[in-house]
Every structure is written in C-alpha cells, then in structure tokens.
Design goal:
alpha/beta, Isopropylmalate Dehydrogenase, 3 domains, 7-stranded mixed beta sheet
C-alpha cells in the first residue's frame, strides 16, 4: 500500500487544516498516512476527527520551518544531520524507505532547500523545477519552472523539458506530449538570448519539441508542456491566477448588481460557472511536484484548505502508483 508523509505543520492554520485534510484523504483513498509535527497538538485533533480504522500514524517533530526562515539559517536547519523540524524528519522517512512521497504546504523555499540537502538531485539534473498545471481551452498544460529557478541556463531548460515530458506522459497519460518553449513569438529566432540558445538544444532531444509557444498559445492548449525560466513562469502563474480571480469576481458582481433578468440568468448559469470555478481553483490540484530530486516531493500553498491538502495527498499517491520517479530517473540518465 502507498504511504504518504504529510508535513502537519505546513499550512497557515497548522495543524488543524493539515490534519483535517489528512483525515479526508484517509477516508477517501486507499493509503497509509504519516503525519509529522508536534504530536501534542496533532494527536488530540486527530482523535477528535478520525475513526479508529483509518491508517494514520504520527511521527513527532519538535521543530518546524516557518516563512521567516531564510538564507544561511535555513540552509543550516535543512542540512543538519539531526535536524528536528517536520520537513527534515518527513523527508528522511521517504529517503529511508518508510514512505513513498512527501507533501507539505509550508515554506516553498524551505521545502526546496530541505529536499536538495536531504534527498539530493537526480543524476544529471543541476536544478529541480516546480511544475504546476495551467487550465487551458483543451484541458491543461504543465508549466515549468514557476519560481524555483529565476535565473537559468539553456541546459536547465532542456532538463525541465525532459522532466516535464515524462511527467505529462506518466501522470497525465499524454502520449508523446507536445513540448513548447515559452517565447514572445513562434519563430525560431524570436525570444531572449536564453530562449534562442535553448531552441537548438531542444531540437536535439528525443522529446516531441514543437518549437516556441507564446503565452496565448499556452492558454489555447497548443502544447502539453510549456518550458520557461522560473522568473517568467512565476509571472505567468501569478498573472493567470489574478485574471481568473478578476473574471469570476466581475461575473459575480454583474449578477448581484444586475436587474431581475440578470439575476435569473445568473441562476441558470450557476451550474456551468461552478464547473469553470472548479477548473480554475488551485485547491482542486492541491500541490505541485518538485521535479529533479531523488524522491517524490509535492509542495502546496500555505493558504491551502483541507480540501487542497486532501487533493495534494491524492496527487502524491497517483504519482507513486504511476511510477513517475523511475521514469524520470531513466529519462535524465540517458539524456
């Protein structure tokens, strides 16, 4: 049975939201869960929420990494052999074979640094990448990187493309996923120096590279995987989230402030709009994979609710069952 480790001190409202999400996941999915964190705070909450037959156990971690942990202090806490924070202990459980994947909605930078020092990079990968999915006209598109690496070299983008191709195929079932390089024009000569230098390198790979893709092409569903540096990817992510929130808010405002016919139309559209909202809701994804480290690590947002935590656990479980990690290892070692 798949075993997932959850950092129970991750969300902004830890451990309440984390534990509630874990209980929801244990009730819905066939898996074992390990909650890592302050046992004195976790156990009473868990006992008040769960039935005795749920496969959840607690591993005590007396410390935690917060949003205030940065720089040299963060590196020291991540790499110390006997680190006692919930991220370090949780990832060590995966590294030692006691679990199959790690999930946290804590400090993204802390999770990345801890993963690098405690788990290490896949052979042949210089930098790992965060890879969320964007909703598109045709379904979804994997975009990487979206913040882990603001400054990249061409070889980094090639690695992202290879890992993204494998993940799209194994996790989402895309056959020969189409890979696009994010640029300001579709022609091969367009883009920054980074894009222009990366283009011919991608043409030499075995992946299904279709060339440059503009931002509108990503949203229109022209590619299954969009490759870019972390700075550009993060701007794309934050902008798309803001636009989605703006559009849905404006529709709601128009219905509430409209006449009786507008309100009736809003009621008739409510089921359809609910589906649109679900497609744009990051809680339905839960967490994104950190591709390029030696084990499966999924990172969610600190503002996650219990549903998002449940879905993050589901995503990790599905990645384990799809044997994503083995495919990633094989792909990057032969590149």
């Amino acid at each position: 049975m798949t075993t997932i480790v959850l950092d129970a001190m991750g969300t902004d409202t830890y451990p309440d939201t984390d534990v509630r999400g874990a209980v929801m996941a244990a009730q819905e999915y066939d898996l074992d869960l390990i909650l890592v964190g302050d046992e004195k705070r976790i156990r009473p909450l868990l006992e008040s929420l769960s039935q005795k037959d749920l496969s959840i156990r607690i591993v005590h971690a007396p410390e935690m990494l917060t949003m205030d942990d940065k720089g040299d202090d963060l590196v020291r806490m991540a790499r110390h052999k006997d680190a006692q924070n919930s991220m370090a202990i949780g990832m060590d459980l995966v590294k030692n074979g006691e679990a199959d994947a790690f999930v946290s909605a804590g400090n993204t930078g802390a999770a990345m640094v801890t993963a690098l020092f405690r788990l290490g990079r896949l052979k042949g990968i210089n930098r790992p990448a965060l890879a969320p999915t964007f909703p598109t006209e045709t379904g979804s598109c994997l975009v990487l990187d979206i913040g882990a690496n603001p400054d990249c070299k061409p070889r980094n983008l090639v690695d992202f493309a290879i890992m993204g191709s494998v993940y799209a195929e194994k996790f989402y079932g895309r056959t020969k996923p189409k890979i696009g390089l994010v640029s300001n024009g579709e022609e091969a000569g367009k883009g920054s120096s980074l894009v222009r230098e990366t283009y011919p390198l991608l043409e030499e790979t075995d992946i299904n590279f279709i060339g440059n893709v503009e931002g509108k092409g990503v949203i229109c569903g022209e590619v299954d995987v969009a490759v870019t540096d972390g700075f550009t990817g993060n701007v794309m992510l934050k902008t798309s989230e803001a636009i989605a929130k703006l559009v849905t808010g404006k529709i709601k405002e128009a219905v509430l402030n409209g006449n009786i016919l507008t309100k009736i139309g809003g009621l008739l559209l409510k089921p359809a709009l609910k589906g649109v909202r679900s497609a744009l809701n990051p809680s339905d994804v839960g967490a994104v994979p950190l591709l390029g480290v030696k084990e499966l690590v999924f990172i969610g947002h600190g503002s996650s609710d219990a549903s998002a935590i449940k879905n993050a656990i589901r995503a990790a479980k599905e990645a384990v069952e799809a044997d994503v990690l083995t495919s990633l290892r094989e792909a990057v070692e032969k590149k």
